[in-house]
Amino acid sequence: MPMVEYRKHILDNGLTVLTHEVWDTPLATVNTLYNVGSRDEDPQRTGFAHLFEHLMFGGTERVPDFDRVVNSLGGDDNAYTNCDFTNYYITVPVDGLATALMLEADRMTGLDISQKALEVQQKVVTEEYNQRYMNRPYGDVWLLLRPLCYKVHPYRWATIGADIRHVGEATLEDVRAFHDRYYRPDNAIVAVAAPLKHEEMLRMVCEAFGAQGVQGAQGVLGEHGLPLEPEQRERREFRVKRRVPTSMVYMAWPMWDHGDRRFRICDLISDLLGNGTSSRLHQRLVRERGLFVEADACISGDAGPGLMVMSGKVAEGVGLEEAVSALREEAQRLAVEGVSGYELQKVQNKYENTFVYSQYKASDRAQALCYYTWMGDTELVNREPEEYRRITADDIQKTARELFVPQKENILYYEAER
């Protein structure tokens, strides 16, 4: 696998900068990651990180129409918010790189948060909530599953917020305070990937952000002091009825954070159980036993203590309790019987293929550089597949035994109304 070569710099304003030379493209990408996600919100003011994703495209006094400038360069831009961070990118022809950097620096410090801009984005986010979560089949699953699994940790609400009224009731004072707290150079990482020398890219970043590199600086993003989730000691269940075509069941177990080796093991466990038609859940519960129309497994992917989730659309005539028992049986079968070397190698190969493909474009590599730097180990951008290859069949079985504990089950019965 080709190595991603990069250089890391810390500016005197605290901004972490990564540069990546790419000589097979005429394009340049600026990827900016802010160390703020929905987990950093006040429980009474949720949805702010996602609201800010929208506000950041609203313009500044210097550049009132952000998208118009990007489009005039022949480029494109976008962003996303998750529980842990907010990520923005701009891709332009290399001649537009200086302008793209100016745009990012300008909105970091000069965002125009007016009452009118706030009201517009409040309506946009509320409409998104209605369309994506309330008026779409199964759209509210994570709105129900997260508070079932978390009682203290801020992962208990989704990025859209615990209550959409929090966004609707936000004041200018609220959002300006949020911006001042989190949208700062020392709480951000910028990666530049372009057909330019490292020195030239760094010079352009320094010029845009009005700062200089600091020799020997390490650059550590601040921790935000999140509350710890108490250990779960009893099974939890929740039942809802919805107007959906097919009933579904969801089972979730608390797992380990990304800094724990068992995070990667759980990732492979989810692939063994539910990734594709050759997976255990599909072969055993869909094809052989006919209990489900579809069955899947995944991890939530959060950087902190996340979730292992198994789910399935239940076949006609099958009881929801029977469906849950079948999922539980497959989880326990992995814990008791383990996995063959062939089966493990198959999912390791699939992971590596996905990883390599995810870094195919220079813009993807810029994003990965920001992500792994935020995680605290930039070199994982090159080393992650090797870490997955080191996982053994014994690791899978041992972790499955620790993971699939009855008293740590969280079960959502999502029943179709008849």
Main attributes?
single chain; about 425 residues; alpha+beta; six-stranded mixed beta sheet; five-stranded mixed beta sheet; 15 helices; 11 strands
Explain this structure:
The chain has 418 residues and is of the alpha+beta class. Helices cover 43% and strands 18% of the residues. The chain is built from 15 helices and eleven strands. The protein has helices spanning 48-55, 66-72, 97-110, 115-134, 141-149, 165-168, 172-182, 198-209, 261-274, 280-288, 320-337, 341-358, 362-375, 380-389, 393-403; strands spanning 7-10, 16-21, 27-34, 76-81, 86-93, 188-194, 236-242, 248-254, 292-299, 307-314, 410-416. The chain has a six-stranded mixed beta sheet with strand order 1-2-6-3-5-4, with helices on both faces. Helix 1 (48-55) crosses helix 4 (115-134) and helix 9 (261-274) crosses helix 15 (393-403). The longest helix has 20 residues, at 115-134. The mean pLDDT is 95.
Largest sheet: 6 strands, mixed
What proportion strand? 15-25%
Low-confidence stretches: none
Which strands sit side by side, in order, in the main sheet?
A: 1-2-6-3-5-4
The overall average pLDDT, rounded, is 95
Helix content: 40-55%
**Distance between termini?**
52 Å
Brief rundown of the structure:
Helix content is 43%, strand content 18%.
Blueprint (SSEs and pairs):
Blueprint lengths: L6 E4 L5 E6 L5 E8 L13 H8 L10 H7 L3 E6 L4 E8 L3 H14 L4 H20 L6 H9 L15 H4 L3 H11 L5 E7 L3 H12 L26 E7 L5 E7 L6 H14 L5 H9 L3 E8 L7 E8 L5 H18 L3 H18 L3 H14 L4 H10 L3 H11 L6 E7 L2
Parallel strand pairs: 2-6, 7-11
Antiparallel strand pairs: 1-2, 3-5, 3-6, 4-5, 8-10, 8-11, 9-10
Helix pairs in contact: 1-4, 3-8, 9-15, 11-15
